[in-house]
Amino acid sequence: MVSVAVLGAAGGIGQPLSLLLKLNTSVTKLHLYDIVNVPGVAADISHVATNSEVKSFLGPKQLADAVTGIDLAVIPAGVPRKPGMTRDDLFKINAGIVKTLVEAIAENSPRAFIAVISNPVNSTVPIAAEVLKAKGVFDPRRLFGVTTLDVVRASRFVRDLRSNIDAASLRVPVVGGHSGTTIVPLVSLASSPVELSESEIKELTNRIQFGGDEVVKAKDGAGSATLSMAYAGARFADSLIRGIKGESVVEPSFIALAADPAGAEEIRKLGAGDLEYFAVPVELSDKGVNRIVSLGAEPSAFEREAISVAAEALSANITTGVNFAKGA
After folding, report:
1. How confident is the model at residue 86 (pLDDT cuts 50, 70, 90)?
2. Using CA atoms, how far apart are residues 228 and 149, in angstroms rounded to an integer?
């Protein structure tokens, strides 16, 4: 019995994400919220032959009802990235949207798990945390930045280089953040050995880091990575739901490292330093973050350098989010 709210359900990510969550048999109630068009989306999705109940909530007056009695809120709300835009360009609009949505969650379902998709995740997750702190309900184990698309791309792009590898089963840990050079795929620590040359690793890393640009360019102004992001968001939501139900599931996520201070020591020593937030492999449970999972081995020298580069950029991203939430 899991109740899920999708906030931003009528958007480019929200619609396919809502459809995929309707197909998840563990979801019993699906609340779809947006400021436009959501009644039609909900009516359409409600015809899918699974047992979950779908309800639509339209506009700010219905936001409180949308997030009341939920177990999980997934937030893809915001404007999409267009050609020439970086995730930082999205900040001014999306920051305010996330702040408003998380305030409503804090007031109406303070124990709900929150999965933030809205970019720039490196800043919107700290915003969400500061809102929850101000409301006195912050639990670092229950707040997640969804970085699963970076993991999905890593697996698929490795397959593009080595056709003998199964993209569906390969797991490449991705740490750091969720934009550009803050994304650090640890190919050397993949679940199956991946034999690549030094130049291939550098090219692969760059493609994973800037994979979103491929989609933005190909859509030629018509949007960003919506379908693959919806798939990744649904995968993360499913992993979290399975964790809530008692299964041991591991997914990388951008979290507050305070969720597991002891487990965070490894990534801090590898370059995260004193950062409050970092994407790390996380074991999920009914608590949310059960523990930060050890990488199991030392990353390569190239990857350790990339972690240092990521940490420097992340520091600024996190500060931007915190300052916005505090009105600084």
Report:
1. low
2. 7
